[in-house]
Amino acid sequence: MPVLERIQALVDSHPVVLFMKGTAEYPMCGFSAKAIRALEAAGAQQIHVVNVLEDAEVRANLPRFSNWPTFPQLFLHGELIGGSDVIGELAESGELARILREATQP
User: Fold this and answer.
1) Where [2Fe-2S] cluster is bound, by residue (predicted)?
2) Which one of 21, 27, 78, 84 is at 20 to 30 Å from 53 when CA atoms are compared?
3) Binding residue per annotation — 34?
């Protein structure tokens, strides 16, 4: 399957997807660590994490797919929310917890 189709399938099949460097348990950059901590603090329980360091094709093509140049990248229901700074701002305002609840409710 072409990489852009694989990315689309990932964001379509999980309500919350974080493309990051490393894993939730072992983030491999400060921005990814900040993002995963903010998501966990906001009550995210069903985060599908994609380690872009393990898939060079995804790492190379995700910025073209999302039109967002950096990692991490958070998608909720297939829609790009943003990167580490956006996630942090949403967390500080309390909006992150609200949109995560909405994204994961049946």
Assistant:
1) 29
2) 78
3) no
The tokens describing 67, both together, are: 């039109």
Determine whether the annotation assigns residue 12 to a binding site: no
Burial pattern 64-96, b for ≥16 Cβ within 10 A else e, equals: ebbebeebbbbbbeeebbbbbebbbebbeeeeb
Domains and CATH numbers, the chain: 3-104 (3.40.30.10)
| 100 contacts 43 by C-beta, under 8 angstroms | yes
For residue 20, how many other CB atoms are within 10 A of its CB? 28
The overall pTM is greater than 0.85: yes
Backbone angles phi, psi at 69, to 5 degrees: -80, -15
Phi, psi dihedrals of residue 18, rounded to the nearest 5°? -120, 115
Residue 84 counted as an annotated binding residue = yes
The 10s digit of each residue's pLDDT in 30-77 is 999 999 999 999 998 889 999 999 999 999 999 999 999 999 999 998
Alpha-carbon distance 87 to 13, whole Å?
A: 21
pLDDT of 106 over the 70 cut? no
